[in-house]
Amino acid sequence: MNLPTDYKKEIEKILRNEEEYKKFIESYNKPSFKGIRINTLKVSEDRFKEIFKFKIKKSNFAKNSYYLEENIDSIGNLPLHHAGAFYVQEPSASSAITVLSPVPGDKVLDLCAAPGGKSTQIASYLNGKGLLWSNEIVKNRAKVLLSNMERMGVKNAVISSCHPETLCKRLTGFFDKVLVDAPCSGEGMFRKNPYAMKEWSQEHVKMCAKRQLSILNTATKALKDGGIMVYSTCTFSLEENEQTVYNFLKENPDFALENIDCDFGRAAQQLILDENLVDTSRARRIFPQDGGEGHFVAKFKKKSANSKKVKDFNYKKAKAAENKIGYDYFSTLFKCEAYGKIEKISNNFIILPEGLPDISGLNVLRAGVLLATNKGSILEPAHAAFMAAKAEELRTKIDFSCDSKEILAYLKGEEISVPEDMCGYVGVCVDGIVAGYAKAINGRLKNKYPKGLRIF
User: Fold this and answer.
1) How many CB atoms sit inside 10 A of residue 249's CB?
2) Beta-strand (E) ranges in 200-261?
3) 184-227 residue pLDDT tens
4) From residue 97, how far is each of 92, 93, 167, 172, 281 by CA, in Å?
5) How far apart are CA 277 and CA 271, in angstroms?
6) pLDDT tens digits for 23-63?
7) Is the peptide bond before 419 cis (omega within 30 degrees of 0)?
8) Is pLDDT above 80 for 315?
9) What is the mean pLDDT of residues 332-349?
10) In a 10 Å sphere around its CB, with 0-12 CB exposed, 13-18 middle and 19+ buried, how is residue 51 labelled?
């Protein structure tokens, strides 16, 4: 692989060691790392290992993160992937959430969230408790984010496509933890995507560094007193990593760079900037020779307070009778109690997450889980509502093995034969994991799998 000369010079300067530089260059003659992260919102780690047909090896970047065999391709078509049992994620990309360390009950903002790898990982750590706000400024990418969040069965999230400045100003001091996985020059993508290398230039690196600092400065507004903010990139550039950390701390003296206590990667660089030694070694770097494609992670703690009070979401109590229809409908589909307040918004019934702030004017694509939509005089359940459920919570279900012809037919949008006594809406499962739903009529399963998700 022909690497740009300027890029190689930068890497040599960063590594400062001839042997390490040689290992780095040699890594471009080896296959890139492939990985998955088991989604514990839908399946236990042990159960997944029982039903997954390929060999996986544990990574040290995050819990439930695994290396995948090099010769495996197109696993996005596997039924278990459609069921949200795992997310395809290069292992070192999961390191940022290990550092962020969200716990159930936290309010977390993922400010640059698409396509959703880190957001769905945060959701698994929250385990349905607390609130996750996932934002993506580019609308089309935000739609992909929403689709991935639904596939992974996330219940307690808000997905928006809002300008970071608008969002963080409105939600001043609201979040316990904030992730800024910033857009970058993508040098850590070069091994698996040579096209990314063709777009690389030092001018692009400088532009990215400027934008990254701006996003970090904006994100500070959303963080509460004592809150944690994690900054990550998938690039190696000093300008986008250590120098951005230095510039951020210089402009934000109410933040401190925290030590990252982990066993992956290596300490970040110490720099000479403004004629001073700048110790940014508390951050972490990951190179291909460290077992990952490339990542940088820095952890900040906020020392000062944001005093602004964020308004709560305005639950429309006057519509209690109308909302009761939603609760009653939920109970016809699921055995469990609703996991949030159900409200009718326009023609939709939504299961809203607890602790929701005022979302008006923030270009929210979805808050919580879409339960059902009014279609004329009838209610049609939503794919997302079934994806957020466990098999044991379903009133009616049918289960297929992951290598059965029936589950493949379902994922292609085809009808399936079922027992004559099965009727109404049915959860369709793959090895005990909900993959969607259908409607049983006269011994046939009328397919309701979304057309945009089907296998062709």
Assistant:
1) 18
2) 223-233, 255-258
3) 999 999 998 878 888 889 999 999 999 999 999 999 999 999 99
4) 10, 9, 21, 22, 19
5) 6
6) 999 999 999 999 999 999 999 999 999 999 999 999 999 99
7) no
8) no
9) 95
10) middle
Which of 60, 62, 64, 57 lies closest to 43 in space, CA to CA? 64
Q: Which residue has the higher pLDDT, 211 or 69?
A: 211
Percent of the chain with pLDDT over 90: 87
pLDDT of 143-194, one tens digit each?
A: 999 999 999 999 999 999 999 999 999 999 999 999 999 999 999 999 988 7
Which of helix, strand or coil describes residue 146? Answer: helix
Nearest to 371 by CA among 402, 404, 331: 331
How many Cα atoms occupy the beta-carbon half-sphere of 384 within 13 Å?
22
Q: Which residue is it, tokens 């970058």?
A: 184
Whole-number Å distance between alpha carbons of 205 and 238: 9
Tokens (6 digits) for 385: 């509502």
- For residue 116, give the nearest of 205, 48, 181, 198 by alpha carbon: 181
Cα–Cα distance, 398 to 427 (Å, whole number): 6
- Integer Cα distance of 173 and 183 in angstroms: 24
- Provide CB contacts within 8 A for 427, sequence distance 6+: 386, 389, 391, 394, 396, 397, 398, 434, 436, 437
